[in-house]
Amino acid sequence: MVEQHLPWLEVVRLGHRIDRDKRITSHLGLTARALGADGIVLCGDEDPSIIETWNNVSERFGGTFSARYESRPMAYLKSFKKGTNERPPGIIVHLTMYGEEVSESLPKIRRDRPVALVVGGAKVPGELFGISNHNVAVGNQPHSEVAALAVALSQWHSSIAIQSRFEGGSIRVIPSREGKNVVDKKSASES
User: Fold this and answer.
1) CB 82 within 8 A of CB 133
2) 125: three-class secondary structure by DSSP
């Protein structure tokens, strides 16, 4: 299968709370990276340890994945949507249980422009529903934002070989029917 590279796709994590959300936010970034997003923007409480975790995983397992903090998420999203001299206007896709069904809405979304998949936290500003190009629901029931992101990214990248995006890195996991098959390039080069 030939890899096609779509325009930039990033996940924007709103409302991170250091004291309550460390694990779920960490898993959002890992899921975003593993399922083909180009980067993640952390909003809410500034938490360098999570960004360091995401960067360490990318370094060890390969691929390029951008992780950074944004202190003003709504201003950032408005700027993303508007575009800049260097980047065309972007599309904001808000993952929410109140949106249009994912299987109906994702095929309608343009894929020739940068996309920000917004995943909320404890309290999402009502303004987000208005500035989003698409409000998308992975089911209309309360559930994990990690699950919503995984389903959305899986459907978004359904025809693309995601594994080919993870070149470099010191660790490679080889798919195996039985047991673990891990190649540690760092250890192999030291022996």
Assistant:
1) no
2) coil
C-alpha 156/C-alpha 139 separation (Å) is: 16
User: CA-based diameter of the chain, in Å?
Assistant: 57
Convert the pLDDT of each residue in 23-46 to its tens digit.
999 999 999 999 999 999 999 999
Using DSSP, state whether 2 is helix, strand or coil: coil
- How many Å apart are CA 60 and CA 70, to the nearest integer? 25
pLDDT tens, residue by residue, 141-159: 888 999 999 999 999 987 5
Rounded to an integer, what distance in angstroms lies between the CA atom of residue 94 and that of residue 17? 19
Enter the pTM of the model.
0.85
**Amino acid, res. 97:** M
What distance in Å separates the CA atoms of residue 63 and residue 43, rounded to the nearest whole number? 23
Both tokens of 94, joined, read: 């808000």
**Hey, what are 13's tokens?**
């994590």
Terminus-to-terminus CA distance in the chain, angstroms?
34
At 25, is the secondary structure helix, strand, or coil? helix
Superfamily classification of domain 9-162:
SPOUT methyltransferase, trefoil knot domain (3.40.1280.10)
Domain regions of the chain by residue span = 9-162
